[in-house]
Write a structure and sequence with these properties.
The protein is of the alpha+beta class. The chain is 40% helix and 16% strand. The chain starts with a helix and ends in a 6-residue tail after the last helix. Keywords: Membrane, Transmembrane, Transmembrane helix.
Length: 347
């Protein structure tokens, strides 16, 4: 264990050694419990230190964002946010001076033109107005009126006088996008039938355009596509988890440092083993354990002999340095694999 903690701090082998120490419960005393808690803290700290580079590398990744799009009649992808709800359609807009295309599509975000059509329709709310019953869908539930009329497209009071009949205008419902998300049926709103939707709702991709789309078309042609933007590869929940892990690791490090200052005789005496001091103490203990032949043994043979020697490294109560201690009595009986797993480690 000493070699793993002093020289191989962040390796998988160190995790194995610390894991065996955690499983080595021993007698149920407070001192034994705090030793077990220290081993568990070191195990968790080492595991987090090993995984930290991977976590940081993973957090630097980015992924493409996806946005809802709708394909228009010319196979161009239009962002869902650019879809506009149609309120009115003026089928014979060529009768107006400022418009040379029919039909004129009035969307909900074109307030000036929408108010102009509202004002135009209000001219025909009189019961004395005469209507033709065979000229198209008409104004809302009305038919085309056989009357002269005025249309103020800009709202500046400069109206265009139109001879009879009135403009042929169809009115649509403008609440579809408020109640429906792209690509999914709502659970709190009852959808009308497809036939009713085709008559009640209409959409466009530009102001004052002349192309209509119905709700069925939007549902069939709508899809999510990769956008030109990227987002962080992990969610804020992952960042929150890493922050918690950092806090726990910091608490473990501070706790072990405070415990060392409070209880360690070596620390209080000023003898704090660093790398070179640990090498000297460890090599002296290995020579004492294996004798002079340790100089001629290979790495694998050294590890095997040290592991089977039954010795351990401790700080005797009367000294301030790491020394070998005989631990063979505890390891004489090999027993089952479970016992070998919970017997702790040697050097």
């Amino acid at each position: 264990m000493y070699a793993a903690v002093a020289f191989e701090t962040t390796t998988l082998g160190t995790l194995g050694v610390l894991g065996k120490e955690v499983l080595n419960f021993g007698k149920g005393t407070w001192r034994r419990f705090f030793r077990w808690l220290a081993m568990l803290s070191m195990l968790l700290s080492t595991a987090y230190a090993l995984s930290f580079p991977t976590l940081m590398a993973a957090m630097t990744g980015y992924i493409t964002t996806y946005e809802p799009y709708v394909e228009d009649y010319e196979h161009n992808l239009i962002e869902w946010s650019k879809i506009k709800e149609v309120v009115y359609v003026v089928h014979d807009s060529t009768r107006l001076v400022d418009y040379d295309r029919s039909p004129l599509v009035v969307t909900s975000d074109d307030e000036v033109l929408m108010k102009a059509v509202d004002a135009y329709i209000s001219q025909f709310k009189d019961d004395g107005v005469q209507y033709h019953a065979d000229d198209g869908p008409g104004i809302g539930n009305f038919f085309v009126a056989n009357e002269t009329s005025e249309f103020d497209a800009s709202g500046d009071g400069q109206s265009v006088k139109l001879p009879a009949p009135s403009l042929n205008i169809t009115e649509y419902d403008s609440n579809f996008l408020q109640n429906h998300s792209p690509g999914e049926e709502p659970y709190d709103v009852e959808l009308p039938s497809s036939e009713v939707r085709a008559d009640r709702f209409a959409f466009a991709f530009e102001r004052a355009g002349n192309t209509l789309y119905n709700s069925t078309y939007l549902r069939e042609k709508g899809s999510c596509k990769p956008s030109e933007e990227y987002q962080w590869g992990f969610s804020y929940i992952f960042l929150f988890m890493v922050s918690i892990f950092n806090f726990i690791w910091t608490c473990i490090m501070v706790g072990m440092w405070l415990d060392t200052r409070r209880a360690s005789r070596m620390y209080k005496s000023g003898r704090r083993p660093g790398l070179i001091r640990s090498i000297m103490d460890y090599s002296a203990a290995v020579r004492e354990e294996l004798g002079v032949e340790a100089e001629s043994l290979e790495e694998d043979e050294l590890r095997k002999r040290v592991r089977e020697s039954g010795g351990a490294l401790v700080v005797p109560k009367t000294e301030l340095r790491v020394r070998r201690a005989d631990n063979s009595e505890l390891q004489e009986s090999k027993g089952s694999w479970k016992k070998s797993l919970t017997s702790g480690s040697s050097f």
